[in-house]
Amino acid sequence: MIWCVEDDTNIREIEIYSLQASGLDAKGFVNADEFFAALENETPDLVILDIMLPGKDGVEILKRIRNTYQSKDLPVIMATAKGEEYEKIKSLDLGADDYLVKPFSMLEMVSRVRAVLRRTRGNDEIFTLDTLVLNATQHVITIDGERVDLTFKEFSMLKLFLSHPRQAFSRDQLFSLIWGQDYIGETRTVDVHIRTLRKKIGRYGACIETVRNVGYRLEESNLHE
């Protein structure tokens, strides 16, 4: 799925149509609020992000994407107007994967999208804990071969634990990494998500250990106790 963040309705609709005509799923968003609300529930394969947007501009959105654990590796192509050389360089420095200079042809856009997807998709990123398998690339988790449904935040949290076994994370760290530095909320939200995550992953829930006065960590040895 390709997401197009563009406030100009005509441009956004042409982008979506061209991508779909090329065999790629696509959807559009007008601003940062719409985009991040959708990102709470699913992850696109790539984002085409316009720099000039109402409210938070594309550069601010890119910063938040790269500073949030669950989306930090999300491929992003920035769309810049002719003459915005500084913004283009700034975007690349912040981690944009490519850029398009307006006005660009739809053929060029599709070509660049496919090129970035080829570069960023490699082998699947897989984490395991006994018979628990988390495929980060496909966003799928299975236990004993059976698929387990997790929310986006639960999945991101489990991936973080599996990729950093035995490392203790404070509630503040988890909140910042999973929800993002700009998210307004309370760290007790972390405890609620830990509780539901433990329940959903059954016997593996014991591996998510509470570290007194600190937070949580993944302790693989708890599985065999």
Question: How is this structure best summarized?
Answer:
This protein has 8 helices and 12 strands. The chain starts with a strand and ends in a 7-residue tail after the last strand.
Describe this structure in words.
The chain is an alpha/beta fold. The strands form three sheets. It has a five-stranded parallel sheet with strand order 2-1-3-4-5, sandwiched between helices. Strand 6 and strand 7 form a beta hairpin. The chain has helices at residues 9-21, 32-39, 58-67, 85-93, 106-120, 152-163, 171-179, 188-200, and strands spanning 2-5, 26-29, 46-50, 76-81, 98-102, 126-129, 132-135, 140-143, 146-147, 169-170, 208-211, 215-218. The chain is elongated and about 60 Å long.
Alpha plus pi helix count: 8
Structural category is alpha/beta
Shape: elongated
Q: How far is the N terminus from the C terminus?
A: 42 Å
Helix and strand sequence: EHEHEHEHEHEEEEHEHHEE
Q: Quick one: how many beta strands?
A: 12
Low-confidence stretches are: none
| Strand line-up of the largest beta sheet | 2-1-3-4-5
The share of residues in helices is 25-40%
The Cα radius of gyration reads 19 Å
Largest sheet: 5 strands, parallel
Strand and helix map with partners:
Blueprint (H helix, E strand, L loop, with lengths): L1 E4 L3 H13 L4 E4 L2 H8 L6 E5 L7 H10 L8 E6 L3 H9 L4 E5 L3 H15 L5 E4 L2 E4 L4 E4 L2 E2 L4 H12 L5 E2 H9 L8 H13 L7 E4 L3 E4 L7
Parallel strand pairs: 1-2, 1-3, 3-4, 4-5
Antiparallel strand pairs: 6-7, 7-8, 8-9, 10-12, 11-12
Helix pairs in contact: 1-5, 6-8
